[in-house]
Amino acid sequence: MNKYLLFLFIAFLSANAKSNAQCDTVTNLSLQQLTSTSAKGTWDSVANATQYEYCIRIDTVKCSKGTLTSNRNVLFPSLAPDTTYYLCVRSYCSTVSAWACISFKTPPVPAAVKSLNSNNNIKVYPTATSGETTIEIPQPMTSEASVYIFNTTGQQVMKTAVHSGKNTINISQLSQGTYIIKIVDHNVNYITKLQKL
Asked: For residue 119, what are the contacts with CB-CB under 8 A and spacing of at least 6?
């Protein structure tokens, strides 16, 4: 009887050790299809991983929480050109692995678009505010002209239509941090950074 209980106890410990096996760190984290405004992150499969969590930032602050996915490749649209990003991924098994991170820099805006950026005389001020920022657009805009605001993970947090002249954008509902403003029209593609205080 004692040998049987000892056998059951050892079997229990063995099964418990397997179910609490440490989750391996993601390997071969890399980028594909890198453009001035997008990138695709990929990584190898981790044994026993049920899902992955990724975080993309423009600062070096350690990720505390990210976005969960079951995929091993994720497209990051709406990135800012000529900007350094930090991509971190971790795996979820019965435990959570450490973050695996890489840095990358998006290429500058292509020359044709850059010439539009430098010659359109768009002004954004103040670029550090806790409430409102003004976007001044001197040239005519189409009815489809819009302002997009993205957080440091590339997630769109605001979109609003704009017109020629002064446009006031209220960002008081946004969390403190750095944002990217992108103004888009048929002939305009203007990008700048904004700091929410």
From this structure: none
